[in-house]
Amino acid sequence: MKIEEDTTGHDMYCPLSSLLKAAYLLLSSSTFFLFLTGHPNEVRLEGEFEHLEQGEFLIYSTDEELDRLDTLHIQDGCFSYTLPALQTATLHILYPNQSELVVFANPGADILVKGDAQNLSEVEVSGSEDNERYTEFRQETNGKSAKEAKGIARNYILEHPTLAMSRYLFTTYFLCDTATTAPEATELYDSLCRACPDDLALSKLSTHVRAIDVLKVGQQLPDFTLTLKAEHGGNGKEERTIQRADYKGKRLLMFFWASWKGGSQSALYRSRRMRRELKSKGKDIELFSYSLDIDEHRLTRIEERDSIDYPSYCDFLGPASPLAQKWGIRELPFFILVNTDGRIVATGTDWMLHIDKAAKEL
């Protein structure tokens, strides 16, 4: 069965939870049903998949209502899962192509998610205003360009500021977009805060709103001091500290990635290739890996497999890693290219679009 990617879902990473990890969903069905039923402080997920005997996939919450990375097990086409929930949780279910199904789990609501696994863009979710509005949004943006979808998201946020869906759209289409300006984000964020002054999850986003211009092209790379763990990458046999001053007068490519994020490991290949190309022109560049992995064994295996011989940092806090939070890293992989003057010359998630040209001009 061919599973098409949901192009409206903006398969992005945003730093709201330390629970993200890779997942593969063993789907072989054409149609599925997912039911969420519960009591006031509980959400129960029950699913039924046609033409699927067994499988499993991971489920996580970007707002930390689910306090762990968990697995949904499918047996004879069915699964059942109960989640305690005191407030609306934004749940993510990962597909084999690593696109995501987003469901707003409103405590006490009976929510039905119905769709065709071969046409994920047409999935319909009902049972609460959050899910029904989000379904409308997905249908309206299906086939639209990223710029058009962002404009539609802005309208939904302003029209429905009290919904959890609007907070999710703000995070996905604005905080996760490196083209978003600080005034643009602040306008929407202030609108949400006025409508929901007591929303704790919303207040936590203030850090990311303030971080929008931290990595602006043309300014100095912000200071950082990190302790590198021994026996990782090119860190050597003893723990050591590294800081921005260590790269004074040097070209630097710093990249954020994680083994669980689709396409992220290509950062390792592209960075080494760029280093070779610059070296052939008599130019040197330092590489720095900042992993948002959670599993140390998995990270070590990848570092050994790819022969990483440059500094590699990971605190195994995932997206909650302090520097990633402070710098507003909201999507993986994320590249930061710095020239010999210590100034940022390019940033972004798309190598060919954001980094390649600037790298050739170093």
What does this structure look like?
- This protein has helices spanning 129-141, 146-159, 164-175, 182-195, 200-203, 206-210, 266-280, 296-305, 322-326, 351-360; strands at residues 31-37, 42-49, 54-61, 70-75, 78-84, 89-94, 100-105, 111-116, 119-126, 225-228, 240-243, 252-257, 286-291, 312-313, 334-338, 344-348.
- It is α+β, with helices and mostly antiparallel strands and 362 residues long.
- It folds into three domains: 1-126, Sandwich (Immunoglobulin-like); 144-213, no CATH class; 225-360, Glutaredoxin (3-Layer(aba) Sandwich).
- α2 (146-159) packs antiparallel against α3 (164-175) and α3 (164-175) runs antiparallel to α4.
Name of the top-level CATH class of the largest domain = Alpha Beta
Q: What would you call the structural class?
A: alpha+beta
Helices, by number, come to 10
**What is the H/E order?**
EEEEEEEEEHHHHHHEEEHEHEHEEH
CATH fold field value of the largest domain: Glutaredoxin
Instruction: List how many beta strands DSSP finds.
Output: 16
The main sheet orders its strands as 5-2-1-8-9
Q: Average pLDDT, to the nearest integer?
A: 82
Shape: globular
Rg, nearest Å: 21 Å
Distance between the termini: 46 Å
| Biggest sheet architecture | 5 strands, antiparallel
CATH architecture of the largest domain, please? Answer: 3-Layer(aba) Sandwich
Parts with pLDDT < 50 across at least 5 consecutive residues: 1-30
Please identify which CATH superfamily of the largest domain we are dealing with: Glutaredoxin
Summarize the amount of helix as a percent range. Answer: 25-40%
* Beta-strand proportion: 25-35%
How many domains in all? 3
